[in-house]
Write a structure and sequence with these properties.
Blueprint (H helix, E strand, L loop, with lengths): L2 H34 L1
Length: about 35
């Protein structure tokens, strides 16, 4: 495995983590909006 493959795998992994954080953020924002109604 060269540096390129390692870098690629690392990038896709961090992208998944960021997606999870954004999902959590949108989820909590949605809950807050829902509770305000």
């Amino acid at each position: 495995m060269g540096m390129y493959e390692v870098n690629n795998a690392f990038l896709s992994q961090t992208e998944m983590v960021h997606d999870g954080r954004y999902l959590l953020l949108y989820f909590t924002l949605g809950i807050n909006e829902f509770l305000r109604l």
